[in-house]
Amino acid sequence: MIRLDDITVCYRKHPAVHHVSGTFTAGGLTAVVGPNGAGKTTLLKAITGLQPLTTGKIVADGAIAYLPQLAELDRQFPLTVSELVLSGAWQRKGGFASLAGDEATRTQSALDRVGLSGFGERPISTLSGGQLQRARFARLLVQDTPIILLDEPFNNIDTRTRDTLLHILEHWRDESRTVAVVVHDMGIAHSHFPETLLLAHEVIAWGPTAATLDPANLDRAQQMTEYWQNDAPWCARP
Amino acid sequence: MTLNELLIAPVTDFAFMRRALAGCVALATGCAPMGVMLVLRRMSLMGDALSHAVLPGAAVGFIFGGFALPWLAGGGIAAGLLVALLAGLASRFTSLNEDASFAGFYLVSLAVGVVLVSRWGSNVDLIHLLFGSVLAIDDPALLLLASITTLTLLWLALNYRGVILECVDPGYLAVNGGRGSRYHLGLMVLTVFNLVAGFQAMGTLMAVGMMMLPATIARLWADTLAGLLLAAWLSGLAASVVGLLLSYHLNLPSGPAIVLVAGVLYLLSLWLAPHGWLGRRASKTHLQH
After folding, report:
1. Which pTM does this prediction carry?
2. Residue B42 — left, alpha, or beta (φ > 0 → left; ψ -120 to 50 → alpha)?
3. ipTM rounded to 2 decimals
4. How does it sit in the membrane (chain B) (predicted)?
């Protein structure tokens, strides 16, 4: 469970996320939808603690795993796929504890689940985009946290990879984890996510997917993000 | 000239050669892994910048204490850390990138150093500071070299996992409670230490060669992290030993001789190594599927 309590996040005094309140429930699979620049990534970063809050409070009831967009990983680094996946054990094991035994088994089964069984010893630089995304999901499996935040995990990958990853999301839901995913494809939001948060700096709608994504709401979201005023009055709410 | 005269006698006959050899082996051992980490973190320029930044500190030390080790080393470490700190602060609190702010500070630092030495020292002193002298390594200097190498290897061993994670995926480490800045800072401090160690033997301008060239050579030969570390260490060792002997026989300044040998290894690697020119060409042939 994650509870957002009236949170605002600003860049140079302009709010990217503006007075957002609400709850991501455990066992709920929530799509975070909104136009470009609506503050979706900022919201996820705020929840992980990477982005300081300007105001408000966030309560999360467990460890958080966060999958940022692909660009943040150095793909030329001489690391093998299984080493990358094994790094999911960092929070449990830190810099010293042995990674043999338990964690090695966990890593192998994670690789199997994402369909990368024979890939363990290959350098990450040889993976295709879809394979790398599978490996990053395998690391999430090794991390094994109650809260999982994903930022556009289905961009630029083939449908088979997407289906494998969506299948893992359903598993997480069945295990009562809290999962929030930034999604661009409305089709995926409708077909795989029972809950949706429609964000455009503020919450436009947050609830069952079909009701949230009705055309009137989507229109309003679009307008809210295209509107940027440098001489806007100060927000009266603290 | 027999093989013995060529390779063995210089070291067995002269104490200064023995010390120089031991010093260079220590230097190669400490600098190789540091260089690999810097190259992998895309911080090669940082090493270069820091090596120049060390000069004014050493110059001030030189003005107060002459060629006495504590003054030179202490001054160099202080100046290197100060520039690293200032550049880090500038990139954190302004819109400058870290490499841009580094370039700014190290250029100023180098200029201050050259001004200091040419005003209060002689040209010969300046040459000594810039290019060092392996053959003048005395026991305290050797002790300093060995200590810095030991410290480097211990720190890397204790922080290996975290350093690697911070290099490959800093965002992941940040979310998962790893203090990435701790590893960044550690690398920076150890880089300064190793440069000061190298600078004793090879001078400020050549010191960074012992760090960067072996790591760059390794990148052309190895695919794995262990392979990189090993290849960097071996090429550093080879360059040290061969360069030292060359400088003895041909009466060359030892720092540049060592860096030149490393440079030759680098050119050969560019040509012959698996990731060099020939390797690229060979990889045009392919498996059947």
Report:
1. 0.85
2. left
3. 0.82
4. Multi-pass membrane protein
